[in-house]
Automatic annotation (TrEMBL):
InterPro entries: GAF, GAF-like_dom_sf
Name the UniProt record assigns to this protein: Histidine kinase
Keyword Methyltransferase recorded: no
Gene3D superfamilies tied to this protein: 3.30.450.40
Annotated keywords: Kinase, Transferase
Keyword Kinase carried by entry: yes
A GO molecular-function descriptor: kinase activity
Organism the protein comes from: Pseudarthrobacter phenanthrenivorans
GAF domain residues: 74-205
Length: 426
């Protein structure tokens, strides 16, 4: 069975999984259901969970959960997690969930629509989403395996969960290794993408980095609010966990909360590494950044400095971002939002062009691709408000196609259309 179908044709993949689910329930093993997953189903049913049951046990009332939140260490990182992963806009479709170490839900963030869908499954604060509480799901699997996990449709034990795709990963105390809770992203089947698991892992890394600061993360929020420092101030062995590549002040954010400015050349290298998961050879980077005048030795020297600064976040042979940093950049976040249809959020996150001071052709091409992706998504949205926001930015101000799209929506006599048309023509 083609695993990639869960992203390219989720409905077809879900149908195949549901057939496999029924067969395994009747005692017929199926390759679509891995042995560890089938064992989890059996454990769950031995604990009294029926595949037809959809009500988890509830451990605390909502009023009691409020007190549990105030006393839990994860309250320190919840704002950062919400900033990175949540979508509580009116069109938001997925849910951000944070549990304690037992699987009890302490926080939920999502749109009214997503919360209503979750309420029908009692996927709510105070509910127990461990194996014993509701059977096999992404949260329970993260608790059992101790690692990130993704469950799609009928990989869940309970049939009423088969319309959901869920991605979860445990959060541990960086000082003691003790499990603190589980971060979960859940939504309809078509909300999952190839990047969802990577984003959850990235968010967990950010959370654990914040928890590892001297103040427990209380002074830190999302990447834009971390404190600045010089490279020499960084603790030895601390790896980078986020890249700021939009605008003219590129920086690397580290696991200890520090923010280290990047030279333009190093930022250009990291932008290229961030753009291609299979990595780059020294020859390729030399040509992309310097043309025929580039030499592999010059790149190796620069990469030595980059790796000295960023710790184990950059790998070699070929040069590429390590798993903990791959996909963890502000420019990458914009692209992920666009792929997931979150056009308004992507436009808000697109605060400036990619490395706006760079004249390297390869970076200019990446910058143009990002501009084109944002502009195309805004034009296709059919949302006059988004078009006006886009045209009001420096990047979008010259987008004549967006001006015409606005005119079709608001009318050619509308003053806003006339103003933007005059501006783009000047």
């Amino acid at each position: 069975m083609d695993y990639g179908l869960r992203f390219s044709d989720p409905a077809k993949y879900a149908r195949a999984l549901r057939r496999a689910h029924e067969l395994v329930m009747s005692g017929v093993p199926r390759p679509e259901i891995p042995v560890p997953l089938a064992e989890s189903w059996r454990r769950s049913m031995a604990l009294g969970i029926s595949p037809d049951q959809h009500s988890p046990r509830h451990l605390h009332d909502p009023s009691e959960v409020l007190q549990l939140r105030r006393e839990h260490r994860l309250q320190l990182v919840m704002p950062a997690l919400q900033d990175l992963l949540a979508d509580d806009s009116s069109s938001g479709r997925h849910l951000l969930v944070l549990t304690d170490a037992t699987g009890e839900i302490l926080w939920r963030v999502g749109s009214r629509q997503a919360l209503r869908r979750a309420d029908r499954l009692e996927f709510s604060e105070g509910a127990d989403w461990s194996e014993a509480g509701i059977g096999t799901n992404a949260i329970s699997e993260a608790l059992v395996t101790g690692g990130p996990v993704q469950l799609f449709s009928a990989e869940h034990l309970v049939r009423t969960h088969h319309a959901w795709a869920c991605t979860a990963a445990p959060i541990t105390d960086p000082a003691t290794g003790r499990l603190l809770g589980v971060l979960d992203i859940s939504g309809p089947l078509d909300t999952i993408s190839a990047d969802t698991l990577r984003m959850v892992r990235c968010a967990v890394r950010v959370a654990e980095s914040l928890l590892g600061t001297s103040d427990g993360g209380t002074s830190l929020g999302a990447s834009s609010s971390v404190r600045a420092t010089r490279p020499g101030d960084r603790r030895p062995g601390v790896a980078a966990s986020w890249l700021e590549l939009l605008g003219d002040r590129p920086a690397a954010v580290f696991a200890d909360g520090s923010r280290v400015p990047l030279t333009l050349r190093r930022a250009e290298i990291l932008a290229l590494l961030d753009s291609r998961s299979q990595g780059w050879s020294a020859d390729e980077l030399a040509y992309e950044l310097h043309g025929d005048a580039g030499t592999p030795q010059a790149i190796r020297t620069e990469m030595f400095r980059v790796r000295s600064m960023l710790g184990d976040a950059v790998e070699s042979n070929p040069y590429r971002l390590a798993a903990g940093l791959a996909g963890c950049s502000d420019s990458g976040r914009v692209l992920r939002m666009l792929r997931e249809g979150q056009v308004a959020d992507a436009l808000e996150a697109y605060r400036a062009p990619l490395l706006s001071r760079s004249g390297a052709l390869a970076v200019q091409l990446l910058r143009g691709q990002l501009d084109l992706a944002v502009g195309s998504a805004v034009r296709a949205s059919g949302d006059a408000g988004l078009l006006i926001r886009w045209l009001s930015t420096d990047t979008g101000s010259g987008d004549s196609e967006a001006v015409e799209a606005l005119g079709r929506l608001v009318g050619r006599g509308d003053l806003r259309y006339l103003a933007f048309r005059a501006s783009s023509a000047s």
